[in-house]
Design brief:
Helix 2 (28-43) crosses helix 3 (58-71). The protein is built from eight helices and six strands; from the N terminus they run E-H-H-E-H-E-H-H-H-E-H-H-E-E. The protein has helices spanning 11-14, 28-43, 58-71, 96-102, 106-110, 124-138, 149-160, 164-168; strands at 2-6, 52-54, 78-79, 143-147, 176-181, 184-189. The chain is an alpha/beta fold and 190 residues long.
């Protein structure tokens, strides 16, 4: 079983700035979201004592720390590079207007696939390969994973056997826990 969460809201989420491998701190709302996810995980059957693995980026590190504090679990958090958000290369840390100015029509031409068209960024195959390698390694182990929006889409898509377009259309709220177990994906409200 994988209990998958996205990091809490960040300053750049609020400003609609694309983070990629860039980073910004959690907002007050993001802290509240992370604490609520931790309390919910503490009450969930089967979640007690599960290890936490997170992307090493600051926003996921902080979210994982807050989750562990709220769960009352002193166990160390493990960090895994394969759970990092997609690299957008030259577009990391830009907002949509800045990306559009550098590549006019990118959002119209590519829809949700624009992430994979960034100069110097990761392709879908490379990104799905690293996320898929992490997923395959989990086997029967249960864990709580703290990751990012595009990671969540692709990870759930791979787990469910979805095509790329279907995966990229998935919602990525910051106040939901996704339970991936027994071939099913369940959304758990916080």
């Amino acid at each position: 079983m994988i209990l998958l969460v996205r990091h809490g809201e960040t300053e750049w989420n609020l400003a609609r700035r694309i983070q990629g491998w860039g980073d910004s701190p959690l907002t007050r709302r993001g802290v509240v979201q992370a604490e609520a996810m931790g309390r919910r995980l503490a009450r969930m059957a089967g979640a007690g004592g599960l290890p936490v693995v997170a992307s090493p980026l600051g926003r996921t590190r902080r979210t994982a720390e807050l989750i562990q504090e709220a769960r009352g679990d002193p166990a160390p958090i493990r960090y895994d590079e394969r759970l990092k958000e997609i690299s957008l290369g030259e577009w990391d840390s830009l907002d949509r207007d800045e990306i559009e100015a550098r590549s006019p029509g990118i959002f119209e031409r590519h829809g949700q696939q624009w992430y994979f068209a960034a100069p110097g960024g990761e392709t879908y195959d490379a990104f799905a390969g690293r996320v898929g390698a992490w997923l395959a390694e989990q086997g029967d182990r249960s864990t709580i994973a703290v990751a990012h929006g595009v990671v969540s889409r692709v990870l759930r898509g791979l787990y469910a056997g979805m095509d790329r377009e279907g995966a990229m259309a998935l919602a990525v709220p910051q106040d939901v826990i996704w339970r991936l177990a027994d071939g099913r994906i369940e959304e758990i409200a916080v």
